[in-house]
Amino acid sequence: MTTLDRLAAEKYVLLTTFRKDGRAVPTPVWAVRDGDALGVWTVSDSGKVKRIRRDSRVTVAPCDVRGRPHGGEVPGHATIYDLAGTRRVRDLLKQKYRMLGRLSLLGSRLRRGERGTVGLRITLDE
């Protein structure tokens, strides 16, 4: 089993982005396998999206819902999906997280609209 497979099988992963001064900002997120990368879903105007636009370096580690890691972190790079890629990540999340995923995605769409969230593509540096 590859590192990508292990991370994609986790319920939560700790996505760490970096501020201008280099400080790490870890956030637990849902993640799914999307081809040769991890797909993550988040609010479009979140801090992590702003940090990724400036610096694509990230680390990813398996964690619990509170963000406590239970495995080593893996370096990678993140990019922001276009609308089609974001839709694909949403569909993958619905498959993996079943009813909870569907309800979360529906609630988010009702609150923020379709463009209120965005998918992130995380390619591991292996």
TrEMBL record:
<dbReference type="GO" id="GO:0005829">
    <property type="term" value="C:cytosol"/>
</dbReference>
<dbReference type="InterPro" id="IPR019965">
    <property type="entry name" value="PPOX_F420-dep_Rv2061_put"/>
</dbReference>
<dbReference type="GO" id="GO:0070967">
    <property type="term" value="F:coenzyme F420 binding"/>
</dbReference>
<keyword id="KW-0560">Oxidoreductase</keyword>
<protein>
    <recommendedName>
        <fullName>Pyridoxamine 5'-phosphate oxidase N-terminal domain-containing protein</fullName>
    </recommendedName>
</protein>
<dbReference type="InterPro" id="IPR012349">
    <property type="entry name" value="Split_barrel_FMN-bd"/>
</dbReference>
<dbReference type="Pfam" id="PF01243">
    <property type="entry name" value="PNPOx_N"/>
</dbReference>
<dbReference type="InterPro" id="IPR052019">
    <property type="entry name" value="F420H2_bilvrd_red/Heme_oxyg"/>
</dbReference>
<dbReference type="GO" id="GO:0016627">
    <property type="term" value="F:oxidoreductase activity, acting on the CH-CH group of donors"/>
</dbReference>
<feature type="domain" description="Pyridoxamine 5'-phosphate oxidase N-terminal">
    <location>
        <begin position="6"/>
        <end position="81"/>
    </location>
</feature>
<dbReference type="InterPro" id="IPR011576">
    <property type="entry name" value="Pyridox_Oxase_N"/>
</dbReference>
